[in-house]
Structures are given as structure tokens and as C-alpha cells.
Amino acid sequence: MANNDDQFKKVISHAKEYGYVFQSSEIYDGLSAVYDYAQNGAELKKNIRDYWWKAMVQMNDNIVGIDAAIFMHPTTWKASGHVDAFSDPLIDNKDSKKRYRADVLVEDYCAKIEAKIDKEVAKAEKRFGDAFNKQEFISTNPRVLGYQEKIDTILKRLGKSLEAEDLADVKALIEELEIACPLSGSRNWTDVKQFNLMFGTKLGASAETAMDLYLRPETAQGIFVNFLNVQKTGRMKIPFGIAQTGKAFRNEIVARQFIFRMREFEQMEMQFFIKPGTQKEWFDYWKETRLKWHKSLGLGEDNYRFHDHEKLAHYADAATDIEFKFPFGFKELEGIHSRTDFDLKQHEEFSGKKLQYFDHEDNASYTPYVLETSIGLDRMFLAVFSNALMDETLEDGSVRTVLKLPAVLAPVKAAVFPLVKKDGLPEIAKQIIEDLKWDFNVFYDEKDAVGKRYRRQDANGTPFCITVDHETIETNTVTIRHRDTMEQKRVAISELKDIIKKEVDVKEWLMKM
Ligand code: GAP
After folding, report:
1. Does the CB atom of residue 43 touch ligand 1 within 6 A?
2. Is 418 near ligand 1, meaning CB less than 6 Å away?
3. Is any atom of ligand 1 closer than 6 Å to the C-beta of 335?
4. What's the mean per-residue pLDDT of the chain?
5. In the predicted structure, residue 93 carries a pLDDT above the cut 80
């Protein structure tokens, strides 16, 4: 694919064309940064959620899952700090009247420098061929080192000013870097101001008695307020975790990049309750464990990196992001935060209820510390989907578009085709569907030539295509074609289930962790 922009456009249009993601309320011209998952998207999303739930909840004896409500008592958000501190630094361009996140303007500037590094690497790779050593080149080439130093200096200063709430310096940085509004091209900026991201709503029948509520901006607080209920009813012993998946809402100002930054999105979060003083050890453990989970999906070892936070959130004593190489560069996919005892202590203070743990080994009570892993399901979807989409030139020179989704996550595991729509072949194909659908999501297709049907399933991400032909009638065998290798094999119908299972089974994939 020509360049990153083109690739990203292709990802968005492919997601629509193949029934993965639609703009919300499209017939009314859509709603900005809100998306609907379509027939294939909903399956892919569910499979990602299940893959996470299996690894995080069901495979860990000491982690349980809950499903807390989206609406929470409004005091929750005072206690959590979101009312006072959950805001973004915003800046307006006076000419275009467009509003931007000040930190994102600076980060985008750095991403452009990063693109220059990528260009240098690509050039050198072409020049040196097989002898090219990327790591060595990046760590020695003076031009690349210069670019990297510039990025580091800028991001360090940005981090420091945000940490110190020095918004005047954030504006000064934007001015010094001569960042212009992408729309008007002007550098006529307002001051930088903080803007709270929570959506408000009302609960109650009449205007007089209605209570002001917020839509939760993270699922984590539903876990904290249930900490003691779960600990007691589940007789959980520290260290233990509570996990959940669910919707979160943020009034994102810079809402773009498709499903990367949405106003309504889904999180998969786990709060791990630990003994104070052990947070460093658990931080390292979860960093490593979560990265292994990502890598088990085979999206490419080089597509991940850690980004340790300079600016820590109000609740954290250490934090890192697992960044993924999206079509628009390395960006946050998951956060791992050492949240100390901040949340539980705050909820104790605001609710007046004790949220402590009695440690029988130490014969003492304490407020546990918390290690959090938090990943956006939609972002994970984008990572998987954008990584999978490719144009492949075949031996005969033709190009096929293929969505090489990890088979464990693919929405449809196998498509079954009768070679022709007669001679009893559709009936056999439909019987195969009837048998397989107990175990897998399968799809029947009899329209167009088989070659065309293969291509449709390649683009749809379906790992297997099964074709029923005239030989099937005689021998009870079919051909099974593999999406990635395009290899076709003749196998007995009775073998199909095992062949498919071997490639799509969650266990096979998670064992790679
Ligand atoms: N409980 C901690 C928490 O919410 P966060 O870093 O603000 O931390 C965690 O969010 C993850 O949620 C992010 O790494 C990202 O994957 C996802 N996320 C956050 N805001 C998002 C948005 N507007 N759209 C899509 N995903 C988002």
C-alpha cells in the first residue's frame, strides 16, 4: 500500500464494505466519533473480548469478573478525582474557530519527525539490502539521532509543563515549534485551557427531583466501589484481581482516527489488589504478562513498544503504555498503572465506609494497593484489523486483498460452498453447515464462481473455505482451502471439525503466551 494515509483510508473503507464498522446514524450524516459494529465487527469484537476474558479471568484462579452498571452515584466521581481533574488541555485557533488538544498538536508535530526517521530507515534498507541492521542504523546514524533527540526534548518539555499545570508553557511550546492550524494554516492561537471530559445526564422523573449523573468515563470505579463486596462474597485473598469489560464515555475534543478515539467506547479493565510495598514487583509482572498476551496474537514483535509516562495521572505512582504501530504511527493501545491506594482511600473518605482488607498472615488490616491493566476494546479491534489488511501480489501477477486476522479472532471461521447450485451439492454443503455451526461461526455461499467466492472470504478474513464438488458425492470428501497459504487439500468431511478447531482454538493461541 502506497503510504500510511492511504492505508488508513483503505482500512476504514474496507471495514465498511465488509460489514465490520459503520458510522453511527449514517442516514442522518453520522455522529462524530461514534461508531456501530456491524455483523462481522460485532463477532470480531466479541472474540477479542472473549480472548481477553479467558486470559485474564478464567485462566487465573485469583481473578474474578463483574459487570457493574454504567450509572454510578455521582459522589463516585468526586471521590475518584474525575470531577476536578479529568480534563484535557485545549486550545482554539482564532481564525478557523477549531478546537484542538494542545498536547496532541505537539505530539502530531513529533509524529512528523518520526515519519522522517522511518523514511531514513527505508532509504538505508533499500541501499544496504540484506546487510542492513536496523537497530545499529537507528543508534548510529547522525541524522536519525538528531531527529530522535528533537522528539525527546519536545516531549520531555511537554510532559513537564503538563505535570506542573503550566499551560502558558504549553502554548509557548506550540508557538516556538511554529505549529499552525491544519485547517486555516494560521498560528493565531488562544490560551490553553482545561476542559472536563465527562458527559452529564439526569436521573429521575421530574426536573425538581432529578439527580445529576455522569456517564462513567472509565469502568474501573465500578470495580473499586465493589471491592469489599467481591472480596467478602468470593472469599478472595490478596493478591487478587477484579476484571470487567464495558462501555465508557468521554467527550473527546480531538475525536478522529476512526475507532481509535471515540466518545462512546468499550474498556477491558482489571484491578489487581495487592499488599502495599509490592507494587513495583506487580507492575513489572503485569507489564510483561500483558505484552505476552498481545504477542500471542502474532501481529508482529516489532509493532509494540512501552512508553513510560512522564506525566502521571492524579492516582498513579508509575504508569506505562503498551503502544502499537497503527497505520498513523505508534500510539497507546493499553495502559498499565500502579494506582497506589488512592481510589480505595478516596472512596472510604467520601462514603464513610471502611474498604480495608484483613490480612490473616500479618494479623493486620490495610488498604490494598492496586495495579491496573486497562485496554480499549475498540483500539484493540483497530490494531488487529489494520494489521491484518493487506494487498498481496500473487504468482500470476494478480493482486488479492486479504484480511489476515488471527484465526482465533476471525468472525467467520469457515465458509462452505457447493461448486454448483445443482446435483445435490447445495444440500451436502448445507448439512456441513448444520454440523459445524455447533462449534464455529460458519457461512454458506453459493453465488458466483468459486474463485470469486474465495476472494470474498479472503477479504472478509475467513480462515477456511470448504468446497463441495461432485467427488464429494462418491467419497464424502471436500476441498479445504487455507486463507493465508491458499493451499487446498482434499479431506474427509468427518475431519473438518478437528482441522478447523486446531487453528481457531483459544487454548492453542493462549498457550503461546
Ligand atoms: N482506568 C484507567 C483508564 O481509563 P486510560 O488510559 O484513560 O485509563 C485506558 O484508558 C484505555 O482505554 C486506553 O489505553 C485506550 O485503549 C482506551 N481508551 C481511552 N480513551 C478512549 C477513547 N476515547 N476511545 C477509544 N478508546 C479509548
Report:
1. no
2. no
3. yes
4. 95
5. yes
CATH 3.30.70.100 applies to domain 1-71+234-389: no
What is the SS3 string spanning 270-330?
EEEEECCCCHHHHHHHHHHHHHHHHHCCCCCHHHEEEEECCCCCCCCCEEEEEEEEECCEE
Domain locations along the chain: 1-71+234-389, 412-510
Identify the band that residue 253 occupies on the pLDDT scale cut at 50, 70 and 90: confident
CB atoms within 10 A of CB 371: 28
Q: Which amino acid is at 410?
A: A
Instruction: Return the residue matching grid coordinates 498538536.
Output: 105
Mutate to test the pocket of ligand 1, among 331, 374, 381, 384 (most ligand atoms within 8 A of CB): 374
> Whose CA is closest to atom 9 on ligand 1?
374
CA of 264 to the centre of ligand 1 (A): 11
Amino acid occupying residue 301: E
| Residue in 245, 261, 267 to alter for ligand 1 test, most ligand atoms within 8 A of Cβ | 267
Asked whether 246 lines ligand 1 (CB < 6 A), one says no
Q: Is 70 exceeded by the pLDDT of residue 49? A: yes
Taking only the tens place, the pLDDT of each residue in 99-135 is 999 999 999 999 999 999 999 999 999 999 989 998 8
DSSP single-letter state for residue 207: T
What does the pLDDT read at residue 255? 67
Our answer on whether the CB atom of 343 is closer than 6 Å to any ligand 1 atom is no
Is the domain 412-510 a CATH 3.90.1010.20 member?
no
Average pLDDT for 234-258: 92
Mutate to test the pocket of ligand 1, among 104, 265, 272, 370 (most ligand atoms within 8 A of CB): 265
Does pTM surpass 0.85?
Answer: yes
Beta-carbon count within 10 A of 360 CB: 8
Task: Report the pLDDT averaged over residues 141-162.
Answer: 95
Do the strands 240-249 and 63-65 form a parallel or antiparallel pair, or are they unpaired? parallel
**Furthest-apart CA pair in the chain: how many Å?**
80
Confidence band for 139, pLDDT divided at 50, 70 and 90:
very high
Question: Positive or negative, the Cα torsion across 250, 17, 15, 98?
Answer: negative
| Cell digits of residue 377 | 476494546
Task: Give phi and psi for 206, each to the nearest 5.
Answer: -115, 155
What is the position in ligand 1's atom list of the atom closest to the CA of 267? Answer: 12
Q: Which residue's C-alpha comes closest to atom 15 of ligand 1?
A: 376
Evaluate: CB of 250 within 6 angstroms of ligand 1. yes
pLDDT in tens, 430-445: 999 999 999 999 999 9
Amino acid 2: pLDDT: 45
pLDDT (tens digit per residue) in 450-500:
999 999 999 999 999 999 999 999 999 999 999 999 999 999 999 999 999
CA distances to 14, 194, 370, 378, 467 from 481, in Å: 23, 55, 48, 30, 8
Instruction: Using alpha carbons, select from 484, 487, 492 the residue that is nearest to residue 410.
Output: 484
